[in-house]
Amino acid sequence: MTYLDETNDNVSEALDMKAENTVKTVFSKENVKFADDRPSETPILKLVDELCKTLARENISYCHWKSNNALDRSASGENDLDLLIDRVDVRRFTEILYRLDFKEARPKPDKELPGVLNYYGHDTDTGRFVHIHAHYQLILGDDASKNYRLPIEGPYLASAVQGELFKVPSIEFELIVFVIRMMLKHSTWDAMLSFHGSLSKSARQELDYLMARADRQRMQENLSQYLPFLDSAVFDRCLQSLQPGASLMSRYKAGKQLHRQLQAHARSSRLSDTCLKMWHRGLWGTRKYLLRRPTKKYLIHGGAIIALVGGDGAGKSTAVNELHGWLSKRFAAKKIHMGKPRWALSTLFIKGVLKIGRKLGLFSNRKVPTQSQGDAQSLELPGYGWFLWHVFTARDRYRTYARARRLATNGSLVICDRYPLPQIKTMDGAQTSRFLRAGKNKPLINFLIQWEMKYYRHILPPDLLIVMKVDPDIAVQRRADEDADWIRGRSQEIWGLDWQDAPVQIMDAGMPQARMLAELKSLVWSRL
Fold first, then answer.
1. CA atoms within 13 A on the CB side of 425
2. 168-223 tens-digit pLDDT
3. What are the residue ranges spanned by the domains of the chain?
4. Alpha-carbon distance 147 to 276, whole Å?
5. Which CATH number fits domain 298-526: 3.30.1540.20, 3.40.50.1220, 3.40.50.300, 3.10.350.10?
6. What is residue 499's DSSP assignment?
7. Radius of gyration of the chain measured on its C-alpha atoms
8. DSSP for 25-68?
9. Per residue in 3-26, is it b (16+ CB within 10 Å) or e — as a string?
10. Backbone torsions φ then ψ of 479, nearest 5 degrees
């Protein structure tokens, strides 16, 4: 042995002894901040409680594999449920989720991870979503890439014990995985340059919680038995570098050693992983801050057009806004007003000219009665301007519908305020067709009528149609500052129509608003 080799061995041994002494100090009770053990007052969601009881009753091999110091937040729906499931139980686990009306959703392809699926359930009592991260393998790493897998799912699940609600892994196993997770997230040069080099407050609390309960000897036994490639001295240095007061340089050096020892379990090389992380961070920032399109998930069953129809005073706008706000927090969702579609440039020009002409007396300002108010054969024809106005309205509705259908086909949930339906004559449908009289119209009038009807023929029924019915007298009371006859007439049409043979869902819009919104959410979720 050369002098240099002997010197290196002595230095290595000294470093290992220093790390071991440091970790012993870290694990001493005097140096640990204990987590608050008082029971949380946050209520457990009924859906979460039912899920956990079903998993226990059917003996599913699973555990809530991380952040178990905050299980109260998971139980209340504030945090996601990070569940690790044994592959032999995947089919039964998935069947349970579908029985409880959970729905699978996927992020954009660049955010998908192998062996990690997302399910969402709706707790009807609170209206909250319950988000399950279903892990079939332990995928760890920076949030922008998740580049490593720890192939210890079997022993990790075997260590799990039933808690008051969830099955949880042994503290020692959880601490090992936590340290590796935090080092992969916070020890690289790119993480430090992008201001991700420090642990969050919640991560420090979790570290304190785990260290206060872990048995060092048992943790070392788990390391040597299940992760024999991971040197205990390197792990000790990683643990020490996560402590308050540790320098970023010590964390970087320990992280470099950890990455080297984990390389056989990486999904890609270090260089590829670094490039991917930088790309994803830039893409995320561009989507969120420049394009104003934060990444949302898509239900695997596809998107849908959800239309809410009702007379004035039925609460459509409130319901549409509430529904959109609720869905868009988790999923790609868009709100569209089919009753007042966005004007195209050609519409802006034509209708602008028509408005000026009305003010100058060139076009009539009179209201044309609906079909229910007069015989089509005896109605006096309005001017060409009236027909042209409705043709361009139909064109804009068609363009808006085409956009909505395109979004839904590509996975988005589109919530429409009003919708053209053949049953409804006073709002949003074809208006010129009532003057379709054989042999009695000028060719140009018939051409405009056919032009408008062509656009409406392209507008097919929505995927989910909800009709909000409210007593006309209640509608007038709600819109007391508007023309009572106008409000009553538009509400009466919806109220009086027979919807039994139509593929619609009827919503009683006369009930208290909070109850109506809760039932609306449950209805929509059950049919997505």
1. 15
2. 999 999 999 999 999 999 998 888 887 788 899 999 999 999 999 999 999 999 99
3. 25-290, 298-526
4. 10
5. 3.40.50.300
6. -
7. 32
8. HHHSGGG-PPPP-SPP-SPPPHHHHHHHHHHHHTT--EEE-S-G
9. eeeeeeeeeeeeebeebeebbeeb
10. -115, 55
Q: Beta strand pairing status for 116-122 and 333-337?
A: unpaired
CA distances from 2 to 6, 16, 52, 145 (A): 6, 21, 61, 43
d(CA 306, CA 156): 43
Number of H helices, E strands in the chain: 19, 15
* Phi–psi pair at 413, nearest 5 degrees: -100, 120
CB half-sphere exposure, 188, CA atoms < 13 A: 23
Q: How far is CA 27 from the centre of its chain?
A: 40
Q: How many residues does the chain have?
A: 528
**First-to-final CA distance of the chain:** 72
What is the torsional sign of CA 477, 483, 489, 494?
negative
Token pair 């039912």: residue: 50
Residues 312-341 have pLDDT tens digits of 888 899 999 999 999 999 999 999 999 899
According to DSSP H, which parts of 374-526 are helical?
384-409, 443-457, 472-478, 484-496, 513-526
Weakly modelled stretches of the chain, pLDDT under 50? 1-20, 22-26, 28-40, 371-374
Identify the CA nearest to 477 among candidates 486, 467, 487: 487
* Phi (first) and psi of residue 169, to 5 degrees: -75, 170
